[in-house]
Amino acid sequence: MTTTETLQQVLSWIDEHLEESVTRLEDFLRIPSVGTDPAHDEDTRKAAEFAGSLLSELDMKARVHPTTGQPMVVAHDDGPGSGPRILYYGHYDVQPADPLELWDSPPFEPARVEGAEGPMIVARGSADDKGQLMMFIEAFRAWKAVTGSIPVPVCVLLEGEEESGSDSLEPFLHEHTDELASEVCVISDTGMWDADTPAITTRLRGIVYLQATLHGPSHDLHSGVYGGAVINPINALTRIVSQLHDDDGRIQIEGFYDDVEVDEQLLKEWGQLNFDEAGFLDTAGLKSSTGEAGRSILERVWSRPTCDLNGIWGGYTGPGAKTVIAAEASCKISCRMVPNQDPRKVMDSLKSFLEARTPEGCRWSFEEHGCNPGICVPTDSPWLTTARNAMGQVFQNETVLIGTGGSLPIVGSFQEILGVDSLLVGFGLDSDRVHSPNENFSIARYRHGIRSHAAMIEAFGQMQL
């Protein structure tokens, strides 16, 4: 039997057993593995054990490793005993489900709902990232069921802190470098171009995340007695952060754009993708965009740095009235970094921007929650070419190369610590409502993802390096 015939048998097996694959995903989604919330630590450990048991069922050598944070799941399969070794990465932790009242169904009780692509699963983690990591596990299952083995040696690494900064990841990589040694890392935590067009992401933004608190009076004050006579930290904070952008959407932090490079050829290629700006905005419930003047949405999201307030609070926010001048006011600020920018330089410049505007009698305190660079993935990689060709056996449309506005700091960690590049092949769409209420993932794309991973596995096994 030829390799093509074997792959077709594997793809057929995937289709015939799709309902079983969906059921396993739904069981996974029922575990509220909110890794950032200590109240869900037991649930998060349960999710790690669930993932480990799925891999053990496939006769893979799987182990759940304790860490100072959430567990790491590592599994190995020697496949045919030769060929390039592939590392597969995913994360089993999910974002908090709040605000719960905006969900149409309970976030950890998967619901099948009819969507634009057919049936979809609505649940926290369905697209980010349980649904996507289950795709390569189910591809392994299909190869084992049809042939008894996976046609290439594989290693799986699943973590439970991706949504909260992956604090345990780099120490674990340093401690297990030999065990995780591979030729390339495959990650499914990104997106497609559209529901019919697969994509490989070659450009990621990094992130600088700062929590800043402006301290004023020694305690909360009566606004009738002190109002108009003393500094109000909430008034001052909002006035300061309003100066982060000018009227054209440019960020006013000193030196912010110094290291930003413009790739005119890349911009030209993106311009040929026929991006549906109106459709993109519709997924956010909007009709118009904002940002740097004179730049397209794709250019802003894929190749330009940003600065956004992610939260702001102070004083009394409960029901009814309480007339106080708060002792302090806080905000969370994130900057998305493009490749070649120095995140530490940007973090320090952001702090300097705030400190230069400190009102008399006030002081700042800062708490950092991330400082990671943007990443470029080589487009001339034989892994990318092989994956692109393999997906041609699943999709009619050619695989396109795209950027993403999001951040995956682990890509840089794999490069620096393990010495491997990553292949970012994801199956999400903007309409999946990732990190929002009613997160969803279409069963059609779940199927396409499993089939794509099955085809890539077969192609990797035939590579001659």
Q: What gyration radius follows from the Cα positions, in whole Å?
A: 24 Å
Q: Compute the number of helices.
A: 14
CATH superfamily of the largest domain: Zn peptidases
Strand line-up in the sheet with most strands: 1-2-6-3-7-17
Q: Give the strand content.
A: 15-25%
SSE layout and pairing:
Elements (H helix, E strand, L loop, with lengths): L2 H14 L1 H12 L11 H17 L3 E5 L6 E6 L8 E6 L19 E5 L2 E5 L7 H18 L6 E6 L9 H7 L8 E4 L11 E6 L1 E10 L5 E2 H4 L6 H9 L22 H8 L5 H6 L14 H7 L2 E9 L9 E2 L2 E10 L5 H13 L7 E10 L2 E2 L5 H10 L8 E5 L4 H10 L3 E3 L15 E3 H19 L4
List keywords for this structure.
single chain, 465 residues, alpha+beta, Aminopeptidase, Alpha-Beta Plaits, six-stranded mixed sheet, 14 helices, 21% strand
What can you tell me about this protein's structure?
The protein has 465 residues and is an alpha+beta fold. It has two domains: 289 residues, 3-Layer(aba) Sandwich (Aminopeptidase), CATH 3.40.630.10; 129 residues, Alpha-Beta Plaits. The protein is built from 14 helices and 18 strands. The strands form five sheets. The protein has a six-stranded mixed β-sheet with strand order 1-2-6-3-7-17, with helices on both faces. Strands 11-13-9-14 form a four-stranded antiparallel β-sheet, with helices on one face. A hairpin with a 2-residue loop joins β4 and β5. The longest helix is centred in the last third of the chain and has 19 residues. It is globular. The protein starts with a helix and ends with a helix. The mean pLDDT is 95.
